[in-house]
Amino acid sequence: MQIITLAQIKDILPALDLMPAIEAGFVAYSAGQAVVPPVGELLLDKGEVHIKYGFLHDEPYYVIKIASGFYGNPQLGLPSSNGLMLLFSQRTGELVSILLDEGMLTDTRTAVAGAIAAKYLAPKRVRRIGIVGTGIQARLQLQHLKGVTACRDVLVWGRGDAQLSRYRQDMGPLGFTIGTTQDTAEIMDSCNLIVTTTPAESPLLEVAGLQRGTHITAVGSDAPHKQELDAAILGRADLVVADSISQCLERGEIYQAIEAREIREADLVELGDVIGGKAKGREDEEQISVADLTGVAVQDMQIASSVYKESTING
Amino acid sequence: MQIITLAQIKDILPALDLMPAIEAGFVAYSAGQAVVPPVGELLLDKGEVHIKYGFLHDEPYYVIKIASGFYGNPQLGLPSSNGLMLLFSQRTGELVSILLDEGMLTDTRTAVAGAIAAKYLAPKRVRRIGIVGTGIQARLQLQHLKGVTACRDVLVWGRGDAQLSRYRQDMGPLGFTIGTTQDTAEIMDSCNLIVTTTPAESPLLEVAGLQRGTHITAVGSDAPHKQELDAAILGRADLVVADSISQCLERGEIYQAIEAREIREADLVELGDVIGGKAKGREDEEQISVADLTGVAVQDMQIASSVYKESTING
């Protein structure tokens, strides 16, 4: 059994080409080749814990991922996200590896999924990238978009000047031109590739400002009570893509939009089917598309086994 | 974060008085002071995995336990059970300890629960102990019964001579007089404290031989398709005790007996309520009682925190 520390994971990650692995995971998932039971959830006084687990029939491992969010942690000088991943043998049940990633692999696979959504769903000509939120996911999403769009012009929305200027200071040197705003209407007005990354519990983006030719990826909402998008945005969209339809019926923007009767289950398309060519993605530059990413265990499986395999090559 | 190895756990366990901790866990659970979500389950080609997790409001930790059974493992020279436990802070979500117990703590807390069931439910005068099965749990249950009954006369049932004689050789030196049989009717005939420990999928004990004044603890069945007891045994019992009523409605002997319309949910009593005095246990030497132990996350929480606390004292 091999323990892989956060420091080792940080060394390994840049060497990995994660997009093909995670795309393959989504395709296998949508083709029914993955076993992914419902997400386990533990709600505590100060935080929440999600347990995601499953396996692909053709792979040697099954993966159990524990990820937590304790939103008071920053006041204690600790990151709000935490977690680890466990790899076990499908043949014997033996523990193969513990990846002490402290949530980094979850953050990374979420950002990679955002890049995949943009690759298949964003308009070809991205005018300006809109990022809603200033936290770790707001940073990683933008970094991972570098590989799928040439656009480097960014408008970021945040709740305070301090967070916004820190975001600009940190992300500007990575090659982006960063504008800031505290009004999401400005994002809707000037950006045609928008990523929302907050734990908001009421909509931040209103349908009023929605432009033709916009793609929005929502990654913040991973629980039934969270919502970043006005449900009417999904109702207005030509294309609503779920990372997992079954999961999005229970949590996330799609859950909210179905509750609000803006969309029906039959309207949904799964990301793996778009990637695999079984379902249509964006058909022209004028369509409005929304991708709702609640996070699927196949992403965890793919990133965990990629890191583990790389570590055994170098170990 | 502290990693506790199997070797360290083996050193620590004998120093622990686990019965009070696990009894307290059952009492808290039945009093509604524990948060224990439904068991997560992963069914693979060669085995099955259960994820049990939860917390007690008054404790500093929450616990996630992963336990697997891969029944072809012995042919590969590996134990069939495996697993680990994880302790996290309820305050911050930080990983506090990884207990690499390889299933030993699950085996132990199950045996302790069997001893607790016998303490509260077995007749005062145990004539002979009947053990159904010859595996690890058949051994641990008997060892843990030492503290709750003076009886040392044992009849063990198994499927083969080799297993039975190994059981006798191993358990005799621990102070027991071990008889063996390949006919469960002999167990029913001569034993009034019976523990069933197999992964059987059809009943091993038939109602025909059921005697007055018998207590049976069933620990083998932890999944809907498993069954060790004729459902009519539960129908005939004066007292049917569940470790967790909600869990036993979905898996185990009680699930089977309700499906067979031998008992109703209203007939059930929870072990923690018997321990805590809120429900009646055995009232006389003539009653027939059955305890169905499917394994509850509070047991895992209690044994994991007991081991962790002891390790920090000695560490």
Name the poorly predicted regions of chain A.
none
Name the shape of chain A in a single word: globular
- Ends apart, CA distance between termini of chain A: 13 Å
CATH classification class of the largest domain in chain A: Alpha Beta
What is the number of strand segments of chain A? 15
Number of domains of chain A: 2
Task: Give the assembly state of these chains.
Answer: homodimer
Structural class of chain A: alpha/beta
- Whole-number radius of gyration of chain A? 19 Å
Taken in chain order, the helices and strands of chain A follow as: EHHEEEEEEHEHEHEHEEHEHHEHEH
Query: Helix tally of chain A?
Result: 11
Instruction: Provide the residue-averaged pLDDT of chain A.
Output: 95
Helix % of chain A is 25-40%
Q: Write out the strand line-up for the largest beta sheet of chain A, numbering strands in chain order.
A: 10-9-8-11-12-15-13-14
Greatest interface = A-B, 39 and 40 residues
CATH architecture of the largest domain in chain A: 3-Layer(aba) Sandwich
